[in-house]
Known about the structure:
alpha+beta
Amino acid sequence: MGERKGQNLYYPPDYDPKVGGLNKFQGTHALRERARKLHMGILIIRFEMPYNIWCDGCQNHIGMGVRYNAEKKKIGMYYSTPVYQFRMKCHLCDNHFEIKTDPGNLDYVIVSGARRQENRWDPTENGQIVPETKETQKRLFDDAMFKLEHKTGDVDLSKLDKPRLGKLVGRNETVWKDDYEANCSLRRIFRKRRKELEESAISDGLLLNKSSLDINLLPENEEDRNLASLLALRPSRSIEESHKNVRNKILNSPALPSSSGLITSFGGLKKEESLSKNSSLTRNILGITVKRNKEGTTDLCSTEKKADENTKEDIKLSDKCKNNNNREMLKENRTISLVGDYGSSGESSDG
């Protein structure tokens, strides 16, 4: 089938040889779809990438040898050699890049849409043998004196490079004389390094999972180990001190507002409860005695009146004492808490 299609052996029944060839009769080109832009001077060809490049559209790497359907057109001449330009589309994005031939330097040049991955170097920098240029070769063929001078220079250069070449040959013999043993030593080094990398990857993964991080950890060094050994994670306060501070904070914090508008703390309430538990003040405790009449007898009514007056005085004295005690306690505990003055409210209620 392919052979018949390539040679066009099939002729339809209505074919007229007077029209011309079979392609002209059918109104097609021999190159089919590859020649759809031939009227514009563009031919579709299969182009192979001559070197590694970076696409400017997607910033991806395109390796040497990747093939594309490229539009080929002639853009000029270099003496008698035509210069062609190729336009193709990146297979990873919608970007197009153009490459043209450079017959003068026997190379390809990127026009637009991509950039070359620079892997070129000067061979004279690393001691490589550089072939002579065309001009030098022409002078060596035509000029005998130049050929003699060039030969003398080559001899001098070989003398300078002979010690270095001898070292390289000797090193190659000592290292690769027994290629099996050299290969085994390299494999041992690789296995050891691979185990170290696997162990470090496992430890780094555990640390990152524990810390809930997603970063790349750098390898440890001796300075990091010394710094970590100097650090110690110790609490600023002990457990007893922290509990004591929390307890004091609770005692000194406001609990309930008092009737006089002052804020009463837990410490003030405790002291108030201790005062209320104390025994009430009486005449005997205060050293107050009842006066009698001149006859030595006491009138019942006057005694009752005096008793009433004495009890009132006792109440007033006890209230005053309570107030004085409360004021003294307030002065002592001014920095700790505020105690409500319940004596004034008691007086107003008794009155």
